[in-house]
Design brief:
single chain; about 250 residues; TIM Barrel; eight-stranded parallel barrel; 11 helices; 8 strands; about 40% helix; binds 2-phosphoglycolic acid
């Protein structure tokens, strides 16, 4: 099994100078997990350059599905790649909630990212009402099937899943290790159904109020392969603690 992957989702936080300081600090430190940073897109090129030659990867928080064109304010997969980034985060619940993204539009982005050689981290997760009404696993299955429709088994090797229950993001209400394990095992089974047995190796990260404290017990679960961290990733010390929690 690969080592854990711990990813920082900075969302709309930090100035360029703060981002550079974080990159320098993290370069000088050691973590047991593989590390990945999703900074705001204006910093992609600078952070990729600063972290070149290290094992720390950089990715965009979002991109457009089209190759290029009259889409003011958007960035394409080729632009992300040309900045030196290797990954892109897609389908985050904040994108779904505030920017109208749907499984269908996310599917277009996933296919464009893979076509351009990027590794795509697809976020999925149920809302609290979906969980309370016993539909959580059905929602996860539909998100996987619809967001990954038309992706070939070969391309699926470049997909990572982030399971982020919407009720756990930024709320301080982390899923219990048992809830995370149940969802991750279900996601793993669904991926092997979609792409074949070898896709049971796909990394599945947990996201939603991860802290250095709760990461230890989450990482003990068999199917939790790392974490996607929002709030706690803004502080380099906390982020590194999570990177060393496994
Ligand atoms: P949080 O965010 O760690 O602040 O809950 C996680 C995310 O949105 O990816």
């Amino acid at each position: 099994m690969e080592n854990l992957l711990v990813a920082a989702n900075w969302k709309m936080h930090k100035t360029l100078q703060e981002a550079e300081e974080f990159a320098e600090d993290i370069k000088a430190a050691k973590a047991k997990a593989s590390l990945l940073i999703f900074p705001p897109s204006p910093y992609l090129a600078r952070l990729s350059a600063l972290l070149e030659g290290t094992s720390i990867e950089v990715g965009a928080q979002n991109m457009h599905a089209e190759e290029k064109g009259a889409f003011t304010g958007e960035i394409s997969a080729a632009m992300v790649k040309s900045c030196g980034a290797s990954r892109v985060l897609l389908g985050h619940s904040e994108r779904r909630q505030h920017f109208g993204e749907t499984n269908a539009s996310i599917n277009g982005k996933v296919k464009a990212a893979l076509k351009h050689g990027l590794k795509a981290m697809l976020c999925i997760g149920e809302t609290s009402s979906e969980r309370e009404s016993g539909r959580a696993m059905d929602v996860l299955r539909a998100q996987l099937e619809e967001c990954l429709g038309g992706v070939s088994a070969k391309e699926a090797g470049r997909i990572t899943i982030a399971y982020e229950p919407v009720w756990a993001i930024g709320t301080g209400k982390t899923a219990t290790p048992q809830q995370a394990q149940e969802a991750h095992a279900f996601i793993r089974k669904t991926l092997s159904g979609l792409f074949g047995k070898e896709y049971s190796k796909t990394r599945i990260l947990y996201g939603g109020s991860v802290t250095p404290e709760n990461a230890v017990s989450l990482f003990r679960e068999k199917d939790v392969d790392g974490a996607l961290v929002g709030g706690a990733s803004l502080d380099v010390g906390k982020f590194l603690k999570i990177g060393n929690a496994g």
